[in-house]
Design brief:
The chain has 318 residues and is α/β, with parallel strands linked by helices. The chain is 38% helix and 12% strand. It contains 12 helices and 11 strands. Helix 1 crosses helix 2 and helix 9 packs across helix 10. The longest helix has 17 residues.
Length: 318
């Protein structure tokens, strides 16, 4: 597994990052806490990731209402120091951890939430830390000042921004030392190209996109005029993807499938390869539900797209 330096963090991450958002829930949705992968299923995913050479795990305090961090912590405690010392953890805060709980990026809340994360993960410090969203109710200066203080205290190694825009990054760079950005980015979600990627490239920041398959849309599982697969994202949390149910998207997906068939691969692998071929993508957050779902991302690392080949795929979805 190839590793790359993560922007200004001083750390290296595996090019595939294991996304643990479905451990014990479905992301930060309080309505689905207790759903998602059981602890046994999460352990199987972490074992498979480690065996594949993936050494970077991404979680958040609110994933599964804390269950994701607890599952990771229990897994780490069950391993020897040779495993524990090589795992690079990323966790995040912003969202509420239960119905009616507080949220946001105030100084006091960040400190409280980080202490809870460290306890669940069973570590004294976390290498990488992120705000999970922007907080319009708290000055960016307060949030960034808190992160810088936590770095100085040794409680976090480096910080960045998740689900942030270019203006937030620009302000954070004036105020402190963010190392990277982590936003949604895929053939079907190109918003990161509207400023965030430009800032990352100009300032030497890392970029670790999540949702690389757009909630499963780039796997080929959703087809024109065909009933949605039972248990799929579109039957559980469809709201972020309802806008994709139109003919132009299905046209592009069918063209992607044809391209994949010509190459002897799958649409998912080609979609991952498109991301890995971007010069400013450091690593990609992959959130498999089963160990075998790591395969398309692993295969994509072996499928190197030239700039013209990447542009050809881009044009399918433009």
């Amino acid at each position: 597994m190839e590793h790359r330096a993560l922007g200004r963090s001083g750390l290296e991450v595996s090019r595939i990052i294991l996304g643990c958002g479905n451990f014990g829930g479905l992301g930060s949705s309080t309505a689905h806490f207790g759903a998602g992968e059981t602890e046994g299923e999460a352990r199987a995913l972490m074992d498979a990731a480690w065996e594949a050479g993936i050494t970077t795990f991404d979680t958040a305090d609110a994933y599964g209402g804390g269950r994701s961090e607890s599952f990771i912590g229990n897994w780490l405690r069950s391993k020897g120091a040779d495993v524990r010392d090589r795992i690079v953890l990323t966790t995040k805060t912003f969202n509420p951890m239960s119905d009616g709980a507080d949220h946001g990026l105030s100084r006091a809340r960040i400190r409280r939430q980080l202490d809870g994360s460290l306890e669940r993960l069973g570590v004294e410090s976390v290498p990488l830390y992120l705000p999970h969203a922007m907080d319009p109710a708290v000055p960016v200066a307060e949030t960034i000042g808190t992160f810088d203080a936590l770095v100085a205290e040794g409680k976090i190694g480096a910080y960045g921004g998740s689900n942030v825009d270019a203006a937030w990054l620009e302000e954070a760079l004036v105020l402190g030392h963010p190392a990277w950005a982590q936003n949604s980015y895929s053939l079907l979600d190109r918003e990161a190209e509207q400023g965030v990627l430009e800032v990352c490239a100009r300032e030497g920041l890392g970029f670790t996109p999540f949702s690389p398959l757009a909630g499963g849309w780039l796997t080929g599982k959703y087809r024109r005029g065909v009933e949605l697969p039972a248990g799929s994202r579109m039957t559980l949390r469809p709201e972020p993807y309802l806008h994709l149910q139109e003919d132009r998207v299905f046209d592009a997906l069918e063209a992607l499938e044809a391209q994949a068939t010509e190459r002897g691969t799958t649409p998912a692998t080609l979609a991952f390869a498109w991301l890995f071929a971007h010069p400013h993508v450091t690593a990609v957050v992959v959130g498999p539900r089963r160990p075998e779902q790591l395969r398309p991302a692993l295969d994509a690392l072996e499928l190197e797209l030239s700039p013209p080949e990447r542009e050809q795929l881009t044009e399918l979805f433009t």
